Each structure stands twice: as structure tokens, then as C-alpha cells.
Amino acid sequence: MNRASPALSETLREARKMRRMSQLELSMRVGVLQRHMSFVENGSSNPNRELLMAWLQELEAPLAVRNAAMIQAGHAPAYSVAPLGDPALARAGSP
User: CATH code at 47?
Assistant: First the structure.
């Protein structure tokens, strides 16, 4: 069993507590066993990318928190950190 980093465990636990949601409620919304959620929050298990994204989406975690959790889990960040004025975000063909 892969172990979650202490930072990931803390990030996920804090994100859930900020939404005032129990492990049981969140597990039912995400579609996993509460026991697995507990293992992840205690650092005994590492979630896969799909589960982690669903977990953070359900908690409506800020994008920065989602990226941090992805990195802590050993995955690539899911969202760009480019500022809104970045030329890469400009529309194609705009003046």
C-alpha cells in the first residue's frame, strides 16, 4: 500500500474540515468507502489522480489547494498558474 505524504493528509483533512463535511458524507458523495478516505487522511494510503480530483472538486477546494494536493500526491498540477495577463492566455487572433 502506498503511503500518502503527511502534507497531503493534512491538506485533504483541512479542506474537508473547512467545508464542515464528515468523512462519511464526503465518501458517499465521491463514491468511495469511508474507510479508504480515512486511510488517505491518516497517511496510510495514497489516492489515485482521479479520486483526488473528485475529492477536491466535491470540496470546492481553491485551485491553488488542488495543485498543492496533486503535487503532494506525486502527480502533475492540474491547473495553470499563469497570471490573467499572460500572453499565453490571450485569444487567438485578438489585436
Answer: 1.10.260.40
